Every structure is written in C-alpha cells, then in structure tokens.
Amino acid sequence: MMGKTPVYFVSHGGPNIMYDVDHPVYSKLQKIGKEITTKVKPKAVVVFSAHWQASVPGRIQVNTKEMNDLIYDFYGFPSHYYKEKYPNVGSKEIANRVMSALQSNNITAEPVSRGLDHGVWASFKVLFDPETNPLNIPIVQVSLFSSEDPDQHYNLGRAVSSLRSENIAIILSGMAVHNLRDLRYTMGNGTPLPYTSSFDEALKDAVTVAPEERQQKMADLMKRPDARQAHPSFEHLLPIHVGAGAAGEDEGKRLWTLKEGSMSWAQYRFGDVETA
C-alpha cells in the first residue's frame, strides 16, 4: 500500500454478531475486512473501541501487551460466548510508535498491559475470520479519553494520523446509533425509531462534508436535540470523531447503513483504497 492507509469506522453491535451470519451487517463487515487484508495490506492495526475509556482524565492509555487475552466485557449471554477465542498478537514497537505520536502532539500517554475488549475481538472475528480471512499482523488497542469532548477526540485522531504513512491501518469500533435502553422495545421489529433515522443521516452529513468543515460539524452533532436519544452516553460515537481527526484532508464516505430499531449499523471509510 503506497501513500496513506484509509481509516475505517465499523459499527460493531453486540457479541452476538459473531454468530448472526444472516444479519445484513455480517457480510458487509466481511467485505470491509477483505478489503483491508487484500487491498490495503497494512503492517499493523491500531484500534480504538467504544469499550475502553482511559481510567485517568486527560490521559490516553496504550496496550503494550505482546500476547493479548480477550476481555469478556458483556453480561447475560450463553456460556459459550465466554469461551470464544480470537488469535492475535500485539506489538511493543507499534505501541511505542503510538505513544511517541501522541506525546509529540502534547497528549499524555501511558503504557498498560490489557487484553482486547469485545468491541475489538468480536467484530474482528467477523472482519478478519481466522480461517477464511486471517489478519496475521499486530493489533494495538488504544483507549479513548475519559471525557465526552468531541474536539479532544478529534485531536486524538489528528495526533495518530501520521501512522497512516507508515502503512498502519487505523480502525474505529463503535456504533452510529446506540440506545440499549430502547432496544427491548424494538426487539423483533426492525422499524427504526425516529431518532435513529434522523441522527444516522446527520452523522453522514457531518462525516462527508469538506474536510475543513468536518471538525465543527462533528462537534455540532453532540448538540443536536436527538443526540442523547441516539446515544444516551457518547462512548459509541466518540470513535468516529477519532477517525475523522485521523483522516486529515481525506474525505469521509458512508460505505453502508442499516437503521434498525434503536441502532444504526453505518460503516464508514475515510480516504480511498489505492488500486494497483
């Protein structure tokens, strides 16, 4: 891959996505994963997940573990979910590159030893099936900030954007619309709630504007009257702010969306895939 790697935001759903092969998002995630392994061909992946916010305000934590355990950070699922495996390796070298990039941009970063949460490994089992589309490169997970500040996260993405020129792919794992409280009311009925539709389209508009307007548009999303319905807490939205910041001058594109009840499965890419 010459030039800069694209940046990907994936809506990951719950851990049941691993088994829900008939859900429309399953094949879409597989297609994105195949694009990354066969066309982008990165040497490593740096991933930000909705399920890891730093434990210290104003600081970013970087996983330096070489062999990552899986974190089963979900509750009430069948016992076999907690026996799932996902083969992976970390990289101290790549983790140090991340920390150096952050510190060069005046972001305090600290190394930690941590496993991969299900926002990473459950979605990666679909994106990068170990048998049919193995990733076979290091995965380094980086935390979000503990805050819900959109500009802070946009600047976090900007700080790591230089990694894209080193053939390192940046993947963000979150959810375009994510309201678990309303999920029980929509089970079995895929009709999107009004805020699901309105916020999903507002997110598309913000992501796909001209890059010089994007940061303000992304920040304005948080102030919309439907924002707290679409995201009662913003941790599933903040990864795409990181992605938008990492994109630099590259434009954002919605690859696909499905508005379903109180959720949106929108998938995004910033930048183009170079073809040989």
Walk me through this protein's architecture.
This protein has helices spanning 24-40, 92-104, 118-127, 150-160, 183-186, 194-208, 211-221, 227-230, 238-246, and strands at 7-11, 44-53, 59-63, 108-112, 139-144, 168-174, 177-178, 252-256, 259-260, 263-264, 267-270. With 276 residues, the chain is of the alpha/beta class. It has a single domain, classed as Protocatechuate 4,5-dioxygenase, Chain B. A six-stranded mixed sheet has the order 5-2-6-1-11-8, with helices on both faces. Strands 7-10-9 form a three-stranded antiparallel sheet. A hairpin with a 2-residue loop joins β9 and β10. α6 packs antiparallel against α7 (211-221). The longest helix has 17 residues, at 24-40. The radius of gyration is 17 Å and the shape is globular.
